Amino acid sequence: MILKFKKEIYRTVELLKEFGISKATFFRWQSKWRAEGRDVSEMGKFHLKGSVRTYWLVRKFAAWLLAHKVKEKIVFEEDVKDMREANRVLLNLGDKKYEEEN
Q1: Is 49 exposed, middle or buried (0-12, 13-18, 19+ CB in 10 A)?
Q2: Which are the contacts of 65, defined by CB distance < 8 A and separation ≥ 6?
Q3: Cα–Cα distance between 10 and 15 in angstroms, integer?
Q4: Under the phi-then-psi rule, with left for phi > 0, alpha for psi from -120 to 50, and beta for the rest, what region is 93?
Q5: CA 87 to chain centre
Q6: Cα-flanking dihedrals φ and ψ of residue 41, to 5°?
Q7: Which long-range contacts (CB under 8 A, 24 or more apart) does 29-36 make?
Q8: Quick one: which H or E segment has residue 85?
Q9: pLDDT by residue (tens digit) across 31-85?
Q10: DSSP of 49-71, one letter per residue?
């Protein structure tokens, strides 16, 4: 499945709307990622010099979501919840993008 987006770079609010993710879930995923010693830039997050806004590379985030939430090894009950949420997000996004093309 190839997802098509309106643009390559999104602000945080736009990304949440595009993917249909709640703020709580989104920021929990980022916190968990940092707690594992990882950099959120691996998720697609970046800042432009001189700007206070946070931006996201949409394709990098979608790839991260698939690799680290959908295909993630289940260890805790919270991981099951995250995997289900990520599956829902990607399936809904895929359906939405397919409908826009047809």
Answers
A1: exposed
A2: 19, 86, 89, 90
A3: 6
A4: alpha
A5: 11
A6: -65, -25
A7: 29/69, 29/82, 33/68
A8: helix 77-101
A9: 999 999 999 999 999 999 999 999 999 999 988 988 887 766 656 667 777 777 7
A10: TT---EEEEHHHHHHHHIIIIIS
